[in-house]
Write a structure and sequence with these properties.
119 residues, homodimer, 5 helices, 15% strand, 3-stranded antiparallel β-sheet, 54% helix, alpha+beta, DNA-binding
Chain lengths: 119, 119
Amino acid sequence: MYISVMYANELIRGTLKSIILKLLAEHGKLYGYEMTRMVRERSGDKIQITEGALYPMLHLLETEGIVTTESVEIGKRVRKYYKLTAAGKMTAKKKISEMADFLQTMQILFDLESGLSHG
Amino acid sequence: MYISVMYANELIRGTLKSIILKLLAEHGKLYGYEMTRMVRERSGDKIQITEGALYPMLHLLETEGIVTTESVEIGKRVRKYYKLTAAGKMTAKKKISEMADFLQTMQILFDLESGLSHG
DNA sequence: ATTTTATACATAAGTTGCATATACATAATA
DNA sequence: TATTATGTATATGCAACTTATGTATAAAAT
């Protein structure tokens, strides 16, 4: 599952696109499987992206012109690398700041304000 | 719309149940319309709960035994107050701490850590 | 040697949690 | 007298997932 052990499934719904864009904005170039590893590790095993969610989303991002792909043969296997287009970088920026804003609003609703401000 | 002006709809999906439980845990007794006002105000107009989302969810919570209701006539109109049952209080506690944990994980993924710790 | 696990991508079918629209009704405000 | 606010309720439909399945190579464990 895209959501793992820790959270009720509903909570994660809607965050996938933003997570992918954040990873690509940070690392420049990543392949799908690599993204799942990164999210899993950085979330302390709390979030596990499923392939059923990931690959359709990556294909969508490509058709939307947000990412471009490059296939690389590793031995006899193929890795498909994704990176942001120029337009994709702007989309990523918007999505990331939208997420920051959303998280802050949620923290207010749940009395978890930290005094942290996001520009 | 449950989600308003500010956020892409996907982001809020999944948070409604937790928001309701948090409000009830805080205030003890609330009616539906009142909840929508509170969320709207506390989110700085960024989140607006829709009736189409709210009432079915409240009914569900009632059939699940998480809340009980009390109808009060205000003039000729009826207000339906909701409050947590004993079981509901435990559910609320779990959901609230799940949300805190989720928000923290998201902050890590998006490099927004604040040093805030949630017990 | 052979089974299991990890790596790597992909798609189809079904479910859930909402948005959108609509309905009904009272009370206050312009 | 028209609009806005208050107040609850249901139905239809869609999007973003979950679950399941398929294909294939490579490494590790038994």
